[in-house]
Amino acid sequence: MEPKVLPSLQSGSSLAVSAKKRRKWNVDHWLSFAFILPSVIAVAVFVYGFIAWSGYVSLSNWNSLVPDLSFAGLKNYLFLFKDFRFQADLRNTLFFTLFFILAVLFMGLMLAVFLDQKIRGESLFRNIFFFPMALSFVVTGVIWQWLLNPATGVNLFLKKIGLDSLWYTSVTVIPGIQWSKIQFGVPVAVIAVVIAAAWQMTGFSVAMYLAGLRAIPEEIREAARMDGAGEFQIYRKIIFPMVAPITVSVVIIMAHISLKIFDLIYAMTGPGANFVTDVPGVYMFETTFRGNYYANGAAISIIMLLSVAIFIVPYLISSRKGES
């Protein structure tokens, strides 16, 4: 016969065990916090602290070598949105981002489908498609500057068949509708930058899409074939909808890259004649570190931050909701 345990003793022992566990959890908690504290401090100072400082400077009159942190309100922001160069930058960024994302999505998906066919020499093709990602944007810019130079490279072939070889440096804007101080439309020279950027980043979307395609069970495709679906219908109605979350991720990441692009433009074309290839990153660099207009440069950086946040923040919020 088992000895009976009094309720009071049983509850007391359980309280003691829970208290012991609570004390152990607290120690682990503070130890873990001590390990991550240096990183938290570094991020708080060198990321969020500098963002706050840039925001503060953007509201000041510091537009010379002599610091002047007197409050200027939104004067620097109003100046930028009335400025011809900044308006051109917004136009260029809009069309560069649009064409860049579309090119990366289309080429990445088509190449991933091509590799998903279990072709011979797949590893070789994968290395070829992924290799440009190992390069920096500066190297990519220099390479494509040589390739698209009006006097050399691809343009020599275009010139021989009677096509204009100066499109790389063209100031033409299509359709060129007058809007405020600029002509609104697609700058022809931006297409060259889109080609270079898409060449480098398509490998990323190929890797993402290929991983998604390989994760789809073969049984789903076999079931669709048994129901009489053709390969085109299988991809259009089954495969492509299943990789839609990957498309969203690629769009967010590519938008983040394109909105803050600097090194590729700076190495490849610079601002361009009439600022047809200029972007806010280049304008911010030249305004701040060459013109010493620190408040205007800080205002440009804050606008760039907000434009990136428009894409990133909703994506992070939806991701956290999905995990919960």
User: Could you spell the SSE succession in H and E letters?
Assistant: HHHHHHEEHHHHHHH
Strand composition percent: under 5%
> What would you call the structural class?
mainly alpha
Can you say what the CATH homologous superfamily is? MetI-like
Subcellular location: Cell membrane
Protein name: Sugar ABC transporter permease
Family: Belongs to the binding-protein-dependent transport system permease family.
Membrane topology: Multi-pass membrane protein
Give structural attributes.
324 residues; MetI-like fold
Give a short summary of the structure:
By secondary structure, the chain is mostly helical. The protein has helices spanning 7-58, 75-82, 84-115, 122-130, 137-147, 154-160, 188-215, 218-226, 231-242, 244-259, 263-268, 280-289, 294-323; strands spanning 173-179, 182-187. It has one domain (83-323): MetI-like fold, CATH 1.10.3720.
Description:
It is found in: Cell membrane. The chain has about 325 residues and is mainly alpha-helical. Helices cover about 70% and strands about 5% of the residues. The chain contains 13 helices and 2 strands, in the order ααααααββααααααα. The protein has a two-stranded antiparallel sheet with strand order 1-2. A hairpin with a 2-residue loop joins β1 and β2. α1 packs antiparallel against α13 and α5 packs across α7. The two termini are about 50 Å apart. The model has no long low-confidence stretch (mean pLDDT about 85).
